[in-house]
Amino acid sequence: MHGAAADSLAGTTAALAMPALAETVEHWHEFYLMAGTAAVTLVGLLFVALSFHLDTLLKDEKAHLLGAARLAFMNFIFVMLISLAFLAPGLRPKMLDVVLLAVSITLLGNTLWVVLRGQGRKEARGGDEFLRRRYMASGLVAGIAIMSAVRFLLHPRPSWFFNFALVTALMLVNAAGIAWDLLVQVGRQKLEQERGGRA
Questions:
Q1: 165, exposed or middle or buried, with CB in 10 Å at 0-12, 13-18, 19+?
Q2: Cα separation of 103 and 145, whole Å?
Q3: What pLDDT score does 119 carry?
Q4: According to the per-residue pLDDT averaged within each range, which of 17-21, 125-129, 140-144 is highest?
Q5: Residue 19, class by beta-carbon neighbours within 10 Å (0-12 exposed, 13-18 middle, 19+ buried)?
Q6: What are the angstrom distances between the C-alpha of 88 and each of 52, 64, 179?
Q7: 8 A C-beta contact, residue 61 and residue 55
Q8: Residues whose CB falls within 8 Å of the CB of residue 159, separated by 6 or more in sequence, listed in order
Q9: Alpha-helical regions (H) of 127-159
Q10: Is residue 170 within 8 Å of residue 114, measured between CB atoms?
Q11: By residue range, what is the domain housing residue 101?
Q12: Alpha helices, H only, the chain
């Protein structure tokens, strides 16, 4: 008897919580609109900038630069997909959580795969240590996203959307940092090539 009453109370509480969660998603609309717009703009600018330096990126001894470009694009795509999920009309909060969980697991899995097969270490030796740090930052943020998504799945609360926003902001900042480091590295490589050609 008590068990049935407890189950009924839990079901009623969950039913009441869903509209509150859906309303909270609406409150974050502008944030994810700005985050998605920033990610799309930056990834477009990065494409254009790197298209002028493909000769540098595709050299075997510059593999760390290609790795940095790949990591930057992955981080930007993470932000774009999460933003699209939050902006999609009629998508339930639980489905948003599933999208965040799936994207985060994919990013973390890819990052771990790159590091474990030694490419991250090899690429870092080919240039600077910046790429190693960026791999670690991407994996850390993806791990935080996974933990937040799992906890939201088990105990859905509106306050967890602050965690999702923090993850999105951190990933966007990390992606912008990777893009900046990459452009600086490519610029230095081009400058060294020009000096070598003159010598």
A1: middle
A2: 9
A3: 52
A4: 140-144
A5: exposed
A6: 35, 36, 28
A7: no
A8: none
A9: 130-154
A10: no
A11: 24-198
A12: 2-27, 29-51, 54-57, 63-87, 93-116, 119-126, 130-154, 160-198
Residue type, 101: L
Does residue 8 lie in a domain region?
no
Running DSSP on this structure, what letter comes out for residue 92?
A: -
**What residue type is 52 in one-letter code?**
F
Cβ neighbors of 126 (< 8 A, separation 6 or more) are 61, 62, 63, 64
Distance CA 176, CA 58 (A): 22
Residue 126 — very low, low, confident or very high, per pLDDT cuts 50/70/90? very low
Taking the C-alpha atoms of residue 110 and residue 76, their distance in angstroms, rounded to an integer, is 14
Residue 120: pLDDT band (50, 70, 90) is very low
Task: Answer yes or no: pTM beyond 0.70.
Answer: yes
Of 59-63, 77-81, 166-170, give the lowest mean pLDDT range.
59-63
Whether 11 maps to a domain, the answer reads: no
Number of domain units in the chain: 1
Structure-token match 């020009």, residue found: 194
Q: Is residue 7 part of a domain?
A: no
Q: Residue 190: exposed, middle, or buried by beta-carbon count in 10 A (0-12, 13-18, 19+)? A: middle
